[in-house]
Amino acid sequence: MRISTLGLHGFCAMRVIRKAFDAVEALEASVNTGCVDSELMRLLAAPVRESHYVSNNLWQMLRIANEIAYRSDGVFDIAASGTAGAAVWTDIDLSVKNFVRLNKPLRLELKSIAKGYAVDVAVRALEEAGVGRGIVDLDGCIRAFGPQEWRIHFNLGVMGETSLPITLRGGALACFGPGYGETALYDTRKGMLRAREELGASNVIVRAPSAALANSLTGVAALMQADAAKVLKGLGARGLVLTPDGPRLLESALS
What we know:
Helices cover about 35% and strands about 25% of the residues.
């Protein structure tokens, strides 16, 4: 993760940036699937059909994931991707704030949302520390805050140009495609994992109000390019597909 701020110097800047990194590290520890005592693993090991209290960060992450699952008709589904279709997002009951009830034993695949949510956590920590403007970049998932306008250059090998410049003032950007991570996507319509190579050479860039949305919606756009525009629009996002023939807007997402 890279953090840039403006208007802060020396010890003050290092102190608030350290606070942001601490917040992200705490989030990472809470959803660590390699630690049986992490908050996520304790939830998954708890008795099913009972409500269990969770931190606000975990509850909000699950809420955002379920909202995207609902709007995409299950194309994005952290329960289905974590269980190869044995469970679905409706098996996660979030009807009471900060409480989760799982309707069956399951595993959750949070990689598609956790990176973006971590960026949002860092931004929130910076703002709470009094930082007025800055930008956070975690492996190509980027969010800016404050009045500053930033120019982001995405390296896009599928086009003749070496990079595509995009301006960002507030909100977030994320990209899916060759060179942007290695996680396969679970396609609920086909009931199978699909490697990035199966989705073609195109890159998808999504601009959204939050990094969690931008990061998650790139997968939605990659899996359902023909129908993704409506999903993105409903969540305040817009998308751009970059092919060897040039860029193409997901038009109805911008209408």
